[in-house]
């Protein structure tokens, strides 16, 4: 439609070359737009994948678990253990072998940046979240 | 006419593509974090915005190394081969303390701690090691064997409290030596050393010009200085009522500032169903009862650490008077019934 309109208005001699150029431009722009849309979509899908916790033991990654799936994880290291429970989007330590019990009495966590730390067992549970509104740091 | 129209459409489309792409594909800096569980008996987090992971690892590594050095100098629980620290300063030889030549960093900490003693009217007293070590031993034993957990006898605490005169801590700046003239007195820098070390780490970052960092050692937070583009950091004040569904009591916007929280919910042990936490009132010699937590906002993290401990051991009226007498210091008190009170200018940090 547009191409026809252009051809009618443009001088006959110049119409072919100009028309092709414009056509190429349109294809180029369309391709770029589609590419950008795809990139944005991919990013959106990736981001909305959901919040998850990482478990590290002694600084080493032990596992990654989605908060959208209820489960029970035994974090075992020889004699020491921490039982991680994920329920209704919250992660908490049900019980642990450490003497102080700071980890098991910690409030269940769900927001990005929140963590449960067991110093005696060197276990860190950290929530990762893509959603905005979480503070940068907790005091 | 037609050409210009087409060109502008093309330019507009290009701009749209760029706009869609810029925030996602080409960030100038990225947020990184580094952790350690090795220092000051708590968790350390360094967070910063950098152009590359390599650069962040380099800088956070320097900060962690510095914190480790301070930890080794300031700890009273460990001694290290070939090095004097506060643990060796506390030790007796032939029944008396030695005159110990120490690193300048220890001298500076002890001088700062004496300043905090004056500022807080003695509520922060690093000469209380004898009293605090009794609590430390009873707490450790009670955690190891909860069924037989006990409180320290009052007589034991009273006897120890006779040996807490900070004037018996003799600091010789010129010769860089420390001497405790009372053989029964020991140092415990727990109420100020962590915050002081965090402040030293912050000063290091500033000197190097690394200004998009935030350091957190066990709830002792120091922002240096902002996030990229001058945006302030958001610090959430943890709700000490752990039964509550609300994780954060307040959100504070901080730029080049410290936020330090002292809480009774962090470290405690249980005797006959009652929780006894670790902040010991120097007057009663028992855990201070007035609050669930006290948070302090100010620049110097060592001051924030000392003040949050001091306020925890003071009535709200006395604490408020102290805070209001200091410039650029603000505080939030959380009472056992959940009630919150703030100093008059606290609101300026909130969203």
Notes on the structure:
- The complex is a heterodimer of chains A (139) and B (351).
- Chain A has 139 residues and is an alpha+beta fold.
- Chain A folds into 2 domains: 2-47; 52-128, mini-chromosome maintenance (MCM) complex, domain 2 (Sandwich), CATH 2.60.320.
- Chain A has 2 helices and 8 strands.
- Chain A has helices spanning 2-9, 12-47; strands at residues 52-57, 60-66, 71-77, 80-87, 90-96, 115-118, 123-128, 137-138.
- The longest helix of chain A is centred in the N-terminal third of the chain and has 36 residues, at 12-47.
- Chain A is elongated, with a radius of gyration of 28 Å.
- The termini of chain A are far apart.
- In chain B, 37% of the residues lie in helices and 23% in strands.
- With 351 residues, chain B is α+β, with helices and mostly antiparallel strands.
- In chain B, helix 2 (53-74) runs antiparallel to helix 7 (193-208) and helix 7 runs antiparallel to helix 8.
- Chain B has 2 domains: 28-75 and 191-349, T-fold (Roll); 91-180, T-fold (Orthogonal Bundle).
- In chain B, strand 1 (30-36) and strand 2 form a beta hairpin.
- The model of chain B has no long low-confidence stretch (mean pLDDT 93).
- In chain B, the strands form 5 sheets. Chain B has an 8-stranded antiparallel sheet with strand order 1-2-8-9-12-15-16-17, with helices on one face.
- The A-B interface holds A 6, 9-10, 22, 25, 29, 32-33, 35-37, 39-40, 43, 56, 59, 99-102, 105-107, 109-111, 113-115, 117, 119, 122, 124, 134-139 and B 2, 6, 9-10, 13-14, 16-17, 20-21, 24-25, 35-37, 41-43, 45, 47, 143-144, 214, 216, 219-221, 223, 227, 233-239, 242-244, 247-248, 251-252, 259-261, 266-267, 269, 295.
């Amino acid at each position: 439609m547009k191409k026809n309109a252009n051809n009618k208005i443009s001088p006959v001699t110049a119409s072919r070359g100009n028309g092709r150029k414009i056509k190429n431009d349109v294809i180029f722009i369309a391709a770029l737009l589609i590419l950008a849309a795809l990139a944005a979509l991919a990013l959106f899908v990736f981001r909305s994948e959901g919040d998850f916790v990482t478990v590290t033991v002694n600084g080493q990654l032990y596992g990654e678990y989605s908060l959208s799936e209820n489960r029970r994880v035994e974090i075992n290291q020889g004699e020491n253990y921490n039982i991680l429970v994920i329920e209704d989007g919250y992660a908490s330590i049900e019980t642990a072998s450490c003497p102080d019990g700071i980890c098991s009495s910690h409030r269940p966590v769900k927001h990005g940046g929140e963590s449960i730390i067991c110093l005696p067992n060197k276990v860190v549970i950290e929530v990762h979240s893509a959603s905005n509104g979480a503070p940068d740091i907790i005091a | 006419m037609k050409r210009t129209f087409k060109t502008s459409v093309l330019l507009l489309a290009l701009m749209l593509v760029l706009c869609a792409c810029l925030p996602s594909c080409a960030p100038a800096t990225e947020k990184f974090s580094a952790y350690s569980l090795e220092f000051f008996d708590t968790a350390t987090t360094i967070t910063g915005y950098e152009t590359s992971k390599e650069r962040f690892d380099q800088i956070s590594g320097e900060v962690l190394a510095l914190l480790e050095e301070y930890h080794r100098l300031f700890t009273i629980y460990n001694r290290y081969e070939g090095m004097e620290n506060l643990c060796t300063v506390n030790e007796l030889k032939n029944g008396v303390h030695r005159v110990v030549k120490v690193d300048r960093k220890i001298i500076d900490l002890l001088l700062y701690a004496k300043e905090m003693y004056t500022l807080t009217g003695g509520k922060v007293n690093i000469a209380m090691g004898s009293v605090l070590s009794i609590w430390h031993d009873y707490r450790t034993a009670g955690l190891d064997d909860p069924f037989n957990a006990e409180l320290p006898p009052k007589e034991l605490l009273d006897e120890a409290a006779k040996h807490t005169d900070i004037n018996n801590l003799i600091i010789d700046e010129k010769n860089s030596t420390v001497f405790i003239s009372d053989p029964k007195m020991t140092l415990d820098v727990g109420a100020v050393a962590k915050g002081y070390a965090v402040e030293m780490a912050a000063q290091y970052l500033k000197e190097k010009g690394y200004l998009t960092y935030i350091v957190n050692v066990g709830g002792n937070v120091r922002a240096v200085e902002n996030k990229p583009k001058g945006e302030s950091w958001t610090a959430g004040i943890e709700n000490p009522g752990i039964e509550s569904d609300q994780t954060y009591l307040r959100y504070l916007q901080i730029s080049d500032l410290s936020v330090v929280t002292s809480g009774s919910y962090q470290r405690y042990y249980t005797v006959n169903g009652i929780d006894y936490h670790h902040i010991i009132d120097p007057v009663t010699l028992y855990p201070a009862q007035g609050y669930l937590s006290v948070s302090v906002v100010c620049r110097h993290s060592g001051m924030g650490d000392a003040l949050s401990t001091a306020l925890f051991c003071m009535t709200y009226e006395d604490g408020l008077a102290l805070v209001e007498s200091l410039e650029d210091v603000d505080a939030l008190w959380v009472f056992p019934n959940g009630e919150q009170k703030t100093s008059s200018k606290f609101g300026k940090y909130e969203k």
